[in-house]
């Protein structure tokens, strides 16, 4: 029977109202004064059910307590009890109760025998555990299965399936996978127990639009791949095989049947060599092969031969000690390479860095944590690398601007000014031709002065005093108390700039909280101390002929 949304909403409200009214008559309400979990669970079940069975009619609702029970005086314990079944009958139909039902998360619990792919998605995306559509995807309606079947009436599967750590060991029924996953385009099966390529191929071949497959941390080291199974991955464009210990022979079989593969991840597989292959994967643009044990550049050459159109090569955390090969060999090795990552490699020669210039299209480089750069500051590292790699426009994730490049190249010239001729790199002569032979930069200390030696004049006496410029006028008066034998409140101070004293004369230091460095005091300037008992109109000029008989030793 077809039920409109308005009829469905009215039916749900009618059922809940009837159950609530009936429950108000029961002893359980008078004892607990709370709605039981069964009623609340029922309301949730009815609210999310897509198409519940509805009875065409309902009994009249009476929410008032019978008068016969209000004044009977019968204890509540002696009143007849009504169980859940009685309440359902009052609603006019049989209703499946959900009193003790709790969502089961069995797919997160590791099973000794493993589970199938179909079992996991049937449970994870069932209406009880995944009641609403989340993100792109669609709900799939399948016929009701036999009694006890794990098949649900409706599954809400997104187009991106994440089934990591579900203890999956097999595919399950391929027909069911095809029915449920026809719209899926990305599949994450990481950290499961898939160790048979035949089971993987059954899953992938049943998902026609799949282009991303993640098999990270599945035990595939001993798995043998039949060429017929590898054909199931023909449409996959991004393949993640991190920490699977998959062999190079298996990879060669896969690559031969994956003409659309664009991104390949082979991290944490313990590779110390690369197996040579006659198969060329010209579609691959990005290769992550980090955290392996590759040490010899000849292994990298095999990678270049296998993936001739590679755009991005990420080889961080390997143990490459050098980049070897002639100019002709290196220029042909990666003709399309734009980005290379050599973080934490063992490169220890500037010659290795300069060989990166032989890759004709390289413009982005990542070089951190290599032994060669350990003795330089961060600024020196960046300047020296930029100057040696003229084609690089991005270094360690930061853009190299034209201004930064010019500063780096000028720094490079000055860095090698004192090196002997035989130790000068070729890049030095190229930059000298461009900028000329630059003189060393003048060392200018722009830090504010902390001390100054001044002449303190007081009533014809002169003392050479070293004063701190970070103190205030009030602090200076306290320091001069022992020099001029006057209390701070009994003295006036005048500052005399020897360079500007003729046109401006002495400047009274009248503000006790003003810092001395704001007067721009220099060595050789004068401080005139005048007792306050003397008239303030015209301060006496210091006597230039007088000199200190005993210089003041401590700094003030």
TrEMBL record:
InterPro entries per UniProt: LRR_dom_sf, TBCEL_Ubl, Ubiquitin-like_dom, Ubiquitin-like_domsf
Could you tell me which residues belong to the region Disordered? 530-556
The record, for CDD domains, names: Ubl_TBCEL
Listed under GO cellular component are: cytoplasm
Q: Where does it primarily localize?
A: cytoplasm
Keyword annotations from UniProtKB, A to Z: Cytoplasm, Leucine-rich repeat, Repeat
> What ranges does the record list as Low complexity composition bias?
543-556
Q: Which SUPFAM superfamilies match?
A: L domain-like, Ubiquitin-like
Domain Ubiquitin-like: residue ranges: 467-531
Spell out the subcellular localization from the entry.
Cytoplasm
- The yes or no answer to whether the keyword Kinase is present is no
Name by which UniProt lists this protein: Alpha-tectorin
Protein's organism: Acipenser oxyrinchus oxyrinchus
The organism's lineage is: Eukaryota, Metazoa, Chordata, Craniata, Vertebrata
């Amino acid at each position: 029977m077809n039920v409109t949304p308005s009829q469905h909403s009215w039916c749900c409200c009618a059922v809940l109202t009837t159950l609530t009214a009936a429950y108000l008559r029961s002893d359980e309400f008078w004892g607990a004064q709370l709605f039981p979990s069964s009623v609340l669970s029922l309301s949730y079940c009815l609210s999310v059910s897509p198409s519940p069975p509805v009875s065409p009619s309902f009994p009249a609702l009476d929410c008032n307590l019978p008068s016969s029970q209000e004044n009977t005086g019968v204890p509540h314990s002696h009143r007849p009890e009504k169980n859940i079944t009685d309440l359902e009958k009052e609603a006019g139909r049989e209703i499946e109760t959900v009193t003790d039902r709790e969502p089961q998360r069995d797919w997160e619990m590791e099973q000794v025998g493993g589970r199938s792919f179909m079992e996991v998605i049937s449970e994870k995306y069932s209406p009880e555990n995944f009641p609403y559509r989340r993100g792109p995807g669609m709900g799939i309606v399948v016929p009701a299965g036999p009694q006890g079947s794990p098949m649900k009436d409706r599954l809400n599967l997104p187009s991106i399936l994440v089934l990591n750590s579900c203890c999956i060991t097999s595919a399950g029924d391929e027909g069911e996978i095809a029915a449920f996953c026809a719209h899926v385009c990305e599949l994450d099966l990481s950290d499961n127990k898939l160790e048979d390529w035949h089971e993987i191929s059954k899953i992938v071949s049943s998902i026609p639009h799949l282009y991303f497959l993640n098999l990270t941390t599945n035990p595939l080291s001993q798995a043998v791949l039949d060429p017929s199974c590898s054909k199931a991955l023909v449409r996959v464009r991004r393949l993640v095989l991190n920490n699977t210990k998959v062999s190079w022979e298996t990879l060669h079989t896969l690559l031969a049947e994956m003409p659309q593969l664009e991104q390949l991840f082979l991290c944490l597989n313990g590779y110390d060599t690369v197996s040579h292959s006659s198969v060329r994967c010209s579609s691959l643009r990005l290769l992550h092969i980090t955290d392996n044990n590759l040490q010899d550049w000849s292994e990298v050459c095999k990678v270049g031969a296998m993936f001739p159109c590679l755009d991005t090569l990420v080889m961080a955390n390997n143990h490459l000690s050098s980049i070897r090969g002639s100019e002709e060999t290196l220029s042909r090795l990666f003709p399309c390479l734009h980005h290379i990552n050599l973080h934490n490699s063992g490169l220890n020669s500037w010659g290795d860095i300069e060989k990166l210039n032989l890759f004709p299209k390289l413009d982005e480089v990542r070089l951190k944590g290599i032994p060669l750069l350990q003795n330089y500051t961060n600024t020196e590292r960046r300047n020296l690398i930029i100057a040696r790699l003229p084609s690089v426009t991005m270094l360690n994730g930061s853009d190299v601007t034209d201004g930064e490049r010019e500063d780096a190249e000028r720094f490079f010239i000055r860095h090698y000014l004192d090196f002997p001729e035989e130790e000068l790199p070729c890049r030095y002569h190229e930059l000298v031709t461009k900028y000329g032979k630059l003189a060393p930069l003048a060392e200018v200390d722009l830090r504010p002065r902390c001390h100054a030696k001044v002449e303190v004049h007081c009533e014809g006496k002169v003392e050479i005093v070293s004063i701190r410029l970070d103190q205030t006028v009030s602090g200076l008066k306290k320091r001069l108390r022992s020099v001029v034998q006057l209390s701070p409140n009994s003295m006036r101070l005048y500052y005399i700039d020897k360079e500007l004293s003729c046109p401006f004369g002495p400047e009274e230091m009248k503000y006790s909280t003003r810092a001395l460095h704001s007067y721009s005091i220099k060595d050789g300037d004068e401080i005139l101390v005048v007792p306050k008992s003397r008239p303030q109109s015209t301060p006496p000029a210091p006597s230039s002929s007088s000199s200190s008989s005993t210089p003041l030793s401590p700094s003030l």
